[in-house]
Amino acid sequence: MDWRTITFDWNRARAFLVAAREGSFSAAGRALGLSQPTVGRQVAALEEELGVALIERVGRSFALTEAGAEVAEHLGAMAEAATRASLAAAGQSSSLEGNVSVTASEIITAVLLPPIVATVRAAHPGITLELVASNDVRDLRRREADIAVRTGRPADPELVGRKIRDGAAYLYGTPAYLASLGPLASPADLARAEILGFDRTERLIAGLAQLGVPVTQRNVPIVTTSHLVQWEMAKRGMGLCFMMAEVGDPEPAVVRAHPELPPLPLPMWVVSHRELQTSQRIRVVFDLLVEGLLALGATGA
Questions:
Q1: CA neighbor of 94 nearest in space, from 272, 275, 278, 276
Q2: DSSP codes of every residue in 69-138
Q3: Which residues of the chain have pLDDT under 50?
Q4: 266 and 248 in contact (C-beta within 8 Å)?
Q5: Where are the beta strands (DSSP E) in 157-286?
Q6: From 76's CA, which of 130, 183, 240, 300 has a CA 20 to 30 Å away?
């Protein structure tokens, strides 16, 4: 291989690749932690290094040239290789010092993880934790997190996981709100309730119908992407909210909406990338997460 043929700066190439995938310099800047002008300058410098136009200005946006599209495709393969190299290097670490990122839903992060985090910090003060509280599934293969607490078995063969339990989620509301609905002879009577949800999609409506609650979009007058916000509203008597039993049952402000209403299955897994299992600090955090979540389930927390 003639190494002299590689004449461009990788940081500039990365800036171009992220801009191409994100669709704008401003979005690329947010992804990379750089300013929009800096990304623009790096892309311009890459064009000068390669001697080819990679983008065409279209108003305030841009479009890839034919050469730009081809270069972006090759750089994508380089980015995948760089990610794999990073995973392999991180996996060989035997230090109990350094950062470990853990992603979980808002509710799990806010309610279930704090005592486990306290245990990790007390036992291993050299490990710093980054908690990514998100209801979106983060890509462990791209190092968007080292460890994830998920409600489902990992399908990717590059991921390994430990099942915590077959959990369940129920509809909860305040006793006063449920009383305001009138007699609830069966789960079908909950069709008089307002449901707090993430959206008004057919998926939510179909899921409730399968549980025996025939609702329409009119039953979902408030939507928010934040489960914590939904839960706080439910605790204030503003409607019914789905919540995992570990969080809902101990909450004194609410009760299960109906004793005959079946739950939504909610299996809990702790997952990480296979390569990271050889990193001692990541393995320690992984094991303590598993131990702590198993203990919470055993105590009914």
A1: 278
A2: HHHHHHHHHHHHHHHHHHHHHHHT---S-EEEEEEE-HHIIIIIHHHHHHHHHHH-TTEEEEEEE-SSPP
A3: 1-3, 5, 91-94, 301
A4: no
A5: 159-173, 195-197, 222-223, 240-244, 255-256, 264-273
A6: 130
3-state helix, strand, coil in the chain (%, to 5): 50, 20, 30
Separation CA 281–CA 287 (nearest Å): 10
Residue 2, pLDDT score: 46
In angstroms, how far is the first alpha carbon of the chain from the final one? Answer: 59
Burial class (CB in 10 A: 0-12, 13-18, 19+), 135: middle
Distance CA(104)–CA(89), nearest Å, equals: 24
Reduced to 3 states, what is the DSSP secondary structure of residue 150?
strand
* Contact (Cβ atoms closer than 8 angstroms) between residue 158 and residue 276: no
| CA dihedral sign, ordered 150, 198, 168, 241 | positive
Token pair 């939904």: residue: 230
This prediction's pTM: 0.64
Rounded CA-CA distance 293/284 in Å is 14
User: What is the model's pLDDT at position 256?
Assistant: 97
What is the chain's length? 301
Which structural domains are found in the chain, ordered by start?
3-91 (1.10.10.10), 96-301 (3.40.190.290)
Which amino acid, 186? S
User: CA-CA-CA-CA torsion for 255, 259, 260, 261, nearest 10 degrees?
Assistant: 10
Give the residue carrying structure tokens 């025996």: 212
Cα angle at 81 between 47 and 161, to 5 degrees? 140
Buried residues in 257-293 as b, exposed as e (16+ CB within 10 A): bbeebeebebebbbbbbebbeebbbbbbbbebbbebb
